[in-house]
């Protein structure tokens, strides 16, 4: 038999591991060369991975949800026609059943939590976020369970926390610590290495640990019982911060594990709120002139470039000009220093069915309106088809998010660390406005308008500077030259 190994690819220089999130083929399926056979999630992107060779998927080594280092063999493809047999399918088909079995220590492979601990952002500590409801980390816990007891393997919370990495279990065994008695800071309450080391350093390891209250013990709808362990998370330096009781499922509830992307978004957003002093300012922008230019030149533009002309390229162009005038909005904070970025790399948030991703238009100041349009459309399309590389979602210096496409009028977006500002674009719609007529008298006219919101980091950006930047962007859009298209 001739078998080809399928490996976990390295999706960028800084990527050391990946989570196999979903198999697109099952053992025994025929695959074509370059046909997607599984999906992976890294801390940067989700992507579909093609088959390195044509043949039959003979063996699945890494099951869904596992995180493995790059270059790890995740499957094998039988390339000789007819060599794959039902027996080999049976021997390797146990991979699906293994996913529901208790964790086994396999070198180089560990059960995947949804997200790693974020690195320290410039100017702020890397603290595990406080997430309210935490779904289960394993499919085996999907059904709501009755109150904890030996016959049920303990409470829902205990069973989730016990699912820790082999290293954490080893440390716990060496120090005689019951993992189920700890409150983890990882996704779904998973006990991390930092949690258990912090617990040991606190000196509490030598003391008996109270057990969490069960579902029927008064945890729901009221204060925790006196025997419950108060949920904490460990920050660098041994500081513990309480974030309240972890909710447990009720009968009839549906419990699902967070996807890796959702868990990363959750952690990054809370980390950003902890890191930056968020302030949001709002401006109303008149798009009437841009709307007329777009209507006049749209057909010609699309015929010449093959691209659809939306409002976003006009906004990006105005923002780039504004960042040149007010470079502190294109900066990052590094402790007590400010890094002024020379590159103008504009991230544009793209909503996906499974989350949110921010591809980056690099060196946007070097691009014309048509160049911005081309890159914007290409990145958005490839984001939705999981074709982005990690490099294409890194290195942004300023972010624009556009919830207005869903009808939102305005919002207060959270800064995309380590940036210091993000602009939200509301719905662009016609509104009655008071304008000065030719004779100087006020009159009511129909204008195409939009609310812009700018969330900025008040550590280094003053309100006056932020508003001057927004006023500049407003003027650029309201006086956009027709020859600029």
Brief sketch in words of this structure:
This protein is of the alpha+beta class and 485 residues long. The protein contains 10 helices and 22 strands. It folds into 3 domains: 99 residues, RNA polymerase II/Efflux pump adaptor protein, barrel-sandwich hybrid domain (OB fold (Dihydrolipoamide Acetyltransferase, E2P)); 128 residues, no CATH class; 208 residues, Chloramphenicol acetyltransferase-like domain (Chloramphenicol Acetyltransferase, 2-Layer Sandwich), CATH 3.30.559.
Salient structural properties:
485 residues; globular; OB fold (Dihydrolipoamide Acetyltransferase, E2P); seven-stranded mixed β-sheet; alpha+beta; 10 helices; Chloramphenicol Acetyltransferase
Description:
- This protein folds into 3 domains: 3-101, OB fold (Dihydrolipoamide Acetyltransferase, E2P), CATH 2.40.50.100; 139-266, no CATH class; 277-484, 2-Layer Sandwich (Chloramphenicol Acetyltransferase), CATH 3.30.559.10.
- Strands 12, 15, 18, 19, 20, 21 and 22 form a 7-stranded mixed sheet that branches.
- By secondary structure, it is an alpha+beta fold.
- Residues 87-162 and 207-242 have low confidence and may be disordered.
- The chain starts with a strand and ends in a 7-residue tail after the last helix.
- α8 (312-325) packs across α9 (369-384) and α8 (312-325) crosses α10.
- It is 25% helix and 23% strand.
